[in-house]
Design a protein that fits this description.
The chain is α+β, with helices and mostly antiparallel strands. The protein is built from 3 helices and 7 strands. The strands form 2 sheets. Strands 3-6-5-4-7 form a 5-stranded antiparallel β-sheet, with no helix packed on it.
Length: 183
């Protein structure tokens, strides 16, 4: 419809330059290139198949459309992501959350990547705890220049957390077990 608007404006007896410019801007906003817009103006015909360009470069992770498919405005077409740096999402039990701080150093290891290890840090901590699992979602950011770590992989994260003061630590073997509680 935006292409037809441009064509109708051009077919008028004396096209209003402001309206013409507005029609061009609308097509550019919708993702058409200046060359495609000039082609519409030259031929005065609607381009039926329009290439949809991604707003960023990266790796295609999910494609939800196929060639020739009709799409509606606002539809998600695909998922594109950068893989360097890569994010690792971990679940931390709520009782361990006291050790997690933003920018805390961490080491990530994945057996899938040949036990490759790399260093990174905490980049985000969710503000809420999942009520079903009693875990806090924590995002770590790691350098991934050779793209060894892939989306969907499992990894182990080791934290360089400082000990918490005034904490009693005893070996589990030192506990005397009773039916109601541990002494």
């Amino acid at each position: 419809s935006a292409q037809r608007e441009l064509i109708l404006t051009l077919r008028g007896p004396s096209p209003n330059e402001r309206i013409l410019e507005g029609a061009r801007d609308k097509l550019e906003y919708l993702g058409l290139t200046k060359e495609e817009i000039r082609e519409i103006e030259r031929t005065k015909t609607v381009i039926k198949a329009v290439a949809v360009r991604a707003p960023q470069d990266g790796y295609l992770l999910h494609n939800m459309v196929s060639q020739g498919q009709h799409i509606k405005a606002g539809s998600n077409l695909c998922t594109i992501a950068q893989l360097d740096p890569i994010w690792v999402e971990a679940r931390v039990y709520d009782y361990d959350a006291q050790w997690i701080k933003k920018d805390l150093e961490a080491l990530v290891e994945s057996s899938f990547a040949g036990n490759l290890r790399t260093r990174g840090k905490v980049s985000h901590i969710d503000p809420t705890v999942d009520t079903k699992t009693r875990t806090l979602k924590v995002r770590f950011e790691f350098s991934n220049p050779k793209l060894n770590f892939k989306p969907g992989m499992f990894a182990t994260v080791f934290l360089d957390a400082a000990p918490v003061a005034n904490t009693l630590i005893i070996p589990s073997e030192a506990l005397i077990r009773k039916s109601e509680s541990n002494m």
